[in-house]
Design a protein that fits this description.
Largest sheet: 8 strands, parallel, barrel
Helix content: 25-40%
Strand content: 15-25%
Number of helices: 9
Shape: globular
Order of helices and strands: EHEEEHEHEEEHEHEHEHEEEHH
Radius of gyration: 17 Å
Bound molecules: (5S)-5-amino-3-OXO-hexanoic acid, zinc ion
Length: 276
């Protein structure tokens, strides 16, 4: 078990609407301001979805490049772009995300029902993402929405080799309607099937945020929090900011005796080349 905790902030996502969630960061200025606040209170990695001028999700390459540059200029955070996008995004656009040259990108390990939609991740598409990331020196975060996706990860690694940097880091995304539940027992079930030597973070969607956070910490795991995953801080209390969620996660991590990693420590932990 590491003596520190990796905290990833997922500030925006592709699902909530700005009109419904005014605190959601959707412009580049809002995103960079959020990133700075979150780094100050304990985040090491930022998982990024971006929006267009109408605050709708987009995978526009020019905007993605601008976003990566602005986050690098304004923070030390590890910049992880979402290759998942929105459930409506075509595979070609999702692969093109890598052209923005982030430090990391997400790589989801299978298809899953996603609320009323379907988050499609065909095997050949997964292999393509994994392979292109390695060719370009981008570290993947393998996103796991259901138990069987860990078996797919094992198959991917055994057939197509390790990721860039050699370290396997997994994010358990729990409590999506259609995926595994956000419970301690589901998290413990996943541990059995983690690839040897892999580390994991976990995030619980909606009301499963706190149970998953506590389960992950107690199991030696790391944390992802943010308004991509929950817009309610406590019952009847909307999230005020992403930093509020990161600060709470950092406080729990300190209580658990594993304080937050700095961004530099996160880079080493994830097997990344250092930023210069
Ligand atoms: N927005 C979801 C459909 C990822 O970022 O890689 C997919 C998602 C996963 O959020
Ligand atoms: Zn995402």
């Amino acid at each position: 078990m590491t003596t520190t905790t990796l905290i990833t902030v997922a500030p925006t996502g592709a699902e909530s609407r700005k009109a419904d969630v005014p605190a959601l960061p959707v412009t580049l200025a809002e995103l960079v301001a959020t990133a700075k606040e979150c780094q100050a209170v304990g985040a090491g990695v930022i998982h990024v979805h971006i929006r267009d001028d109408d605050a709708e999700p987009t995978l526009d390459l020019g905007r993605l490049k601008e976003t990566v540059q602005a986050l690098r200029a304004g923070t030390d955070l590890v910049v992880q772009l979402s290759s998942g996008g929105a459930v409506t995004d075509p595979e070609g656009d999702r692969l093109r995300v890598l052209d923005a040259e982030p430090d990391m990108a997400s790589c989801t390990m299978g298809t899953v029902n996603f609320g009323d939609g379907v988050f499609m991740n065909r095997w050949d598409f997964i292999v393509e993402l994994h392979t292109r990331m390695r060719e370009r020196g981008i570290v993947p975060e393998y996103e796991i929405f259901d138990l069987g996706q860990l078996t797919s990860l094992e198959r991917l690694l055994s057939r197509h080799g390790p990721p860039f940097g050699g370290h396997v880091h997994v994010d358990l995304v729990m409590g999506v309607p259609g995926g595994m539940p956000g419970t301690t027992s589901a998290l413990v079930s996943c541990l059995r099937d983690l690839p040897a030597g892999a580390t994991f973070s976990a995030t619980g969607i909606g009301r499963t945020t706190l149970p998953v956070l506590l389960a992950s910490l107690s199991a030696g795991g790391h944390l992802r929090v943010g308004m991509e995953d929950t817009i309610t801080y406590a019952k009847g209390q909307p999230v005020e900011s992403n930093a509020q969620l990161v600060a709470r996660a950092a406080a729990f991590a300190r209580l658990a005796g594993r304080p937050p990693m700095s961004p530099a420590e996160a880079r080493t932990f994830l097997g990344m080349r250092s930023c210069d």
